[in-house]
Write a structure and sequence with these properties.
6-stranded antiparallel beta sheet; 5-stranded antiparallel beta sheet; PatA-like N-terminal domain-containing protein; PatA-like_N
Amino acid sequence: MGLEGYLEDLGIGDILQIVSLSKKSGTLFLKNGKKGSITFLQGQVVRATSSEYPQTLGQLLKANGLVAEEQIDAALARQKSLDEHKPVGALLVESCQLDPQQVEEVVGRQIEAIVSSFFTWSKGFFSFELGEPQAFGSAALNPFDFMLEKGISSQRLVVKGERLASSGEVVADDGELEKEVAQLESRLDDQSLFLLKGMLAELDNPYIGGGIIMLILRYASEIMNRAIIFDVRDRQLVGLGQFGLDSLSSAADEIVRKMRLTAENGSVFGRVLSEKESLMAPLGGARSERTLIEILGGAPDSVFLAPLVSDGKVVAMLYGDNFPDSGPIRSAQAFELFLSKAGIAMEQALQDV
């Protein structure tokens, strides 16, 4: 699953959930003037580093009263003398007769603090590299040479990170934390989770090319009655494809491809372009909205609009509704998560259309 882009387009919370749902192993590298990394094993977080947290593992264990300075020096000296690398944490556990669970807890808290700090990065570049996690080779290459045996749930990290970023508060109460994690997980029911995992797997296909447009429409067809995907050219929306409109005309595809709408300021289309966020709202009185209602032969009280973002700009937009039904769009959050990754691949696909 190759994944790279800008944090302005795909936030750290979405990246964590995508990697978790895909159960991938690899390392996420982050840069914004500072540097950081998050290492995953089958979707669970097992290591994290940050230039803002230069503390070594030995210093961390010492600060928690588990080892003394001379014990750290002895472990580092022993590590250098070994023919085959052994993490300094494992050496300290052996030589100091530490409880491995204590080390895991100390390191786990540090990982949570590091990952939470990444949620305050509103801008930056990220890249995810597939591969089984490896030891660094020595504490000299990375002073935090330690991986958790039992990884940390990405959902747990998302809850803590989002709370820190939004309010500056840390979720300290375990009961409150578990409740918020359960709420996050409940937003994706089993059916929508199964569908999302399948679509993410298809999106990873390196041969998908322009088929990404059809993949987006196919996913949309599972959760809504009809949809249109638009190419965004400055403030003009150009129809690319549709589903669910064939009952209006046998030439529905041709009608959509000839469709041109201007996203005026104040229209729902203009809001999506400026805010770069999905919304559910009624179509109003703007010219573009009236034009679309006329073409569609009506619209329900609430429609779904979502941007596909790449390099900080909206490259495409999806319109969807449940007309003639008035019910809400099912599993919208899972679909939005998929679109957040699809947007990164979309720009290249549009160049081939």
